[in-house]
Amino acid sequence: MEGDCLSCMKYLMFLFNFFIFLGGACLLGLGIWVIVDPTGFREIVAANPLLFTGAYIMLAMGALLFLLGFLGCCGAIRENKCLLLFFFMFILLIFLAELSAAILAFIFRENLTREFFTKELKKHYQRNNDTDVFSATWNSVMITFACCGVNGPEDFEAIPHLPYSSLEKATATPEACCQRELQSREGMFVNKEACLSGNERFQNRQGCYTVILNSFETYVYLAGALAIGVLAIELFAMIFAMCLFRGIQ
């Protein structure tokens, strides 16, 4: 009976570690995508220290979970007490680090509010100055998501004009807010002159905050569910690791 329980525990341990292995692979892949993605998110991550740190923490956590899931599977199948103890200690450290990251994210959540982005946009945005990382990033976001500012074109009324285009002197709306046939930097403008002259028909009027929030709402809930699932799996894996460790003769 004891042997059957030990065998059952061993395979359950293997199963939980296999899910940890898959969870680590997902986090690793997501972290790599955020850092190297060519559609503008790389610049957003680089420009925001909080997001920059979070992306690399996610990458590191994914790599560690990937490795430890593999070690846990090996330790369970081979019934190696040294590997099981090593696995338990490191999975405990990762579990505590993930809880700390979640608490910090909750504490600093006000840095991702509409008011915060509006303030930063009005303070740092330089219109068509693509040599400025902040401005180039915002232009890429507005072009990619067919949006304008944080709340709408009115965000740019207090931003001084730069002499990159004589047309822009007629309106507060930057070139990146003009409608395009294809939403990319290479896409042709529907009517650039009318847009920069103040014709709202040829401008993207919706704010980027709402557009991006709606676009990623599903993924945010999915990421939250995945994080909770990974934490639960880690907790069960630690319990099974200790039980298996004590059961091995």
TrEMBL record:
Disulfide bonds join C147-C177. Keywords: Disulfide bond, Glycoprotein, Membrane, Transmembrane, Transmembrane helix. The keyword Disulfide bond applies. It holds the Pfam family Tetraspanin. It is found in: Membrane. The chain crosses the membrane at residues 12-36, 56-77, 84-108, 219-245. The keyword ATP-binding does not apply. This is Tetraspanin. It comes from Catharus fuscescens (Veery). The lineage of its organism: Eukaryota, Metazoa, Chordata, Craniata, Vertebrata. The gene is Tspan18_0.
